[in-house]
């Protein structure tokens, strides 16, 4: 994805979003359109960028890749006046009522910070099929592609066993690949597996066979067996990118997710978390919804007007010279959008 960027060495924003996936970009879209100077800090990559096709996003055809989806979103964001900075945030500190972000290219200060840093999927050792062409990580995104097709699930824990049994809703040909490991699932799960038509394959994978279209056709095993598959799922856990949240003192759940309320607020005032970094379904529409709710919550807390009665008693009435509250650049962009819509 090639996108022009704004990368000042030092800047001040009302809102800094760390992470450029669907959750972070949606948060930034809302805060920018609601009049708050916003920057997205994105190191690139991420789970959404890996998608070769987009599923379950209404109005977006499946032919749209993850990179194209994100590229379009960034272009949209920048048209409203947000900064998009391709930088890795190495540290965040709380200084008085603000946050200071240190990045690979400089620093920035923000009144509110939104963490949208997601997680990394645990990956099995090679040999492996190509990601998106036989190796998948999202059951709810990709199960539809394997209706009536032979499918594998790699893993040794309860989650892998459950995914294998769940796939029986879509196909009658499901193998659970231990790849030479001993299973760690519970006795209850073992009993469930015994009563579901899932084949458990213990031998390790030694080779991959792909078709001319790049899709997986079969896997080769250490005992010489060749098993045909259209695709499957790797279930080796998740590593949550919660280091920044932890360094700021935010509450972290036992599974590594960041604890948030219904609008993405963490236990640290002014710090939010959205998307795959938080508990819940790891789905693009869910991430977008979380981003929207966080953006609205930030606006409600940071907007200038209406002034409270206490503020009016202290500072007096609001004059016409005080309004509107939007920064001049954001107001200019809004005027441009309005004139374009009228054409």
TrEMBL record:
Q: Does the keyword Chaperone apply?
A: no
Q: Which residues form the FAD/NAD(P)-binding domain?
A: 13-291
- Keywords for this protein: Flavoprotein, Oxidoreductase
What SUPFAM superfamilies does its record include? FAD/NAD(P)-binding domain
Q: Which Gene Ontology MF annotations are present? A: oxidoreductase activity
Q: Which protein, by its recorded name, is this?
A: Thioredoxin reductase (NADPH)
Which source organism?
Halopiger aswanensis
């Amino acid at each position: 994805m090639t996108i022009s960027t704004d990368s000042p060495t030092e800047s001040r924003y009302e809102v800094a979003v760390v992470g450029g996936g669907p959750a972070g970009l949606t948060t930034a879209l809302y805060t920018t359109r609601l009049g708050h100077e916003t920057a997205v800090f994105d190191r690139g990559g991420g789970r959404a960028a890996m998608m070769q096709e987009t599923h379950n996003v209404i109005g977006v055809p499946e032919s749209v890749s993850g990179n194209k989806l994100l590229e379009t979103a960034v272009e949209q964001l920048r048209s409203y006046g947000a900064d998009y900075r391709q930088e890795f945030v190495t540290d965040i500190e709380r200084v008085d009522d603000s946050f200071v972000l240190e990045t690979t290219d400089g620093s920035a200060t923000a009144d509110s910070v939104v963490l949208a840093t997601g997680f990394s999927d645990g990956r099995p050792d090679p040999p492996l099929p190509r990601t998106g062409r036989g190796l998948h990580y999202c059951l709810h995104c990709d199960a539809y592609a394997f209706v009536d097709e032979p499918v594998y699930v790699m893993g040794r824990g309860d989650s892998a066993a459950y995914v294998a049994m769940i796939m029986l809703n879509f196909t009658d040909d499901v193998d659970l690949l231990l790849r030479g490991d001993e299973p760690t699932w519970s006795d209850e799960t073992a009993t469930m597996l015994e009563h579901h038509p899932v084949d458990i394959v213990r031998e390790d994978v030694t080779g991959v066979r792909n078709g001319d279209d790049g899709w997986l056709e079969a896997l080769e095993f250490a005992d010489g067996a060749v098993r045909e598959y259209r695709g499957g799922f790797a279930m080796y856990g998740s590593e949550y990118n919660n280091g920044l949240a932890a360094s700021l003192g935010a509450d972290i759940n036992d599974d590594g997710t960041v604890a948030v309320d219904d609008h993405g607020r963490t236990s640290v005032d002014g710090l939010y978390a959205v998307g795959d970094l938080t508990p819940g379904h790891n789905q693009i529409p869910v991430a977008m919804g979380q981003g929207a709710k966080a953006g609205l919550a930030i606006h409600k807390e940071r907007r200038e007007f209406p002034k409270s009665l206490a503020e009016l008693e202290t500072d007096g009435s609001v004059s016409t010279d005080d309004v509107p509250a939007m920064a001049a650049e954001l107001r200019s962009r809004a005027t441009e959008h309005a004139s374009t819509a009228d054409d």
